[in-house]
Amino acid sequence: MKKNKKKSENKYSFVKRFLRYSLYFFGSILSILLLFFIYINLPVRNSNTKAKIGTTFSYIYAEQIGLDWRQAYLAMLNDLEIKHVRIPIYWDRIENSEGQYDFSNIDWQLQQAQKSGAEVILVVGQKVPRWPECYVPKWVGNDPSNLDQVRLREKLLTFQKSVIERYRDNHPEIVSWQIENEPFLDFGICSKVNTDLLDAEIAQARKLDPSRPIIVTDSGELSLWINAASRADIFGTTMYREVYSAEMGHWRYPIGPNFFKIKQWIIRTFAEQKNAVVIELQGEPWVAGWTTDAPIEVQLSSMNANILKDNVEFAKKTGMNEIYVWGVEWWYWMKVKQNNSTLWETARGL
Is residue 333 domain-shared with residue 304, that is, in the same domain? Predict the structure, then answer.
């Protein structure tokens, strides 16, 4: 009887200890998370006022929203006087038929950039900026999410080689190569990243043009950055403060600039990466469906002059030295198609 009683007491004591330690453990975790949340939302006073401000320009997107893309591009360079531009190279447009290249649109953009004294980042890969992200020609495969990886590797590396060999010489306006766009983020219609292929692209770019740094990018909010940063000479982060999904509607990330400062510390510590830039800062609406199909009031509730200025100031407070704002084509569309130049003029003062 006494033995049974003692066993029962021991069992009860063990359960009490287990519950107590579990409470301590989970309490500690919650406390750490709370402190982390408080820290990343603390006000940041210091702003990097010397940060270079640039834009991404997509001639495909400009066409899609009904603009004369050359007119829009020249307005960006000569009216806004943008001196830092990221230009995607769309594989399916350049090499629409295997081995037949048409670089005329890229040639023209680079010529105009050089004329205006602008510096250019060229983005090359199967996945580059603007929806649907994946721009693999149909002759490589009809389904970008399910391509023959051996064939893709051969054709993509051949294309990349053609691009780099064309532009590595006599183009002082080109300052760096971005290889793929957010390759570790499952977004768009591309298949999941093949890290062996990504590494082969980076290695080939370095071999063909050792004079220019390689940029690799990743999601600002949905990644630790280490995979991308460890492969890059310069790491580029996206920065989207308000997003939209069909399931949740519009919602805002509850984070401040310190969130990005912590992540810069992470890649300095674990990826030996000291060079980080904001490669894509939210500067146009994120709405259900195609941006310019939404009612103007819906577009302007998602992005307007005040939000744009606030986003740029937020990015400056992360301490990064370069900031590429997303949405210059839309600002121009608002100006020439909607007779609303507020965002265009706001961008002029950034």
Answer: yes
